[in-house]
Design goal:
Length: about 110
């Protein structure tokens, strides 16, 4: 998206947001590694909680990013571009929660 929209500078919390997305992707990967043996896993519940916490961190960053964007950016084109980018980042964070919720449901139904 950044290339497609010709973004040349990052805004405020973009790096922090990207870091949360990376951590969430790593957490989901770890969760999937545990999921194959979920009945014997001692830390699958903790991984689910951590994944959900990262999604909440992403929600907080989304609110901050959007507020700052609409409060400080005078260029309507930049508002459109960054709204789309922040929405994509928000959907990425939502995916972590969706995966962890599905894993949790499967675990609960199969214990």
């Amino acid at each position: 998206g950044f290339y497609m929209f010709n973004v040349t500078e990052l805004r405020g919390v973009t790096k922090a947001y990207a870091k949360v997305i990376m951590q969430g992707a790593e957490k989901v990967q770890e969760l999937m590694g545990e999921f194959k043996n979920f009945r014997k896993s001692k830390n699958i519940h903790q991984l689910i909680v951590e994944s959900n916490n990262l999604e909440e961190d992403g929600d907080a960053l989304y609110k901050t990013a959007m507020r700052e964007l609409y409060e400080t950016e005078p260029d309507p084109v930049q508002i459109i571009v960054w709204t789309k980018l922040f929405n994509r980042m928000e959907r990425a964070c939502d995916a972590f929660e969706n995966v962890s919720d599905i894993v949790e449901t499967v675990c609960m139904k199969n214990y």
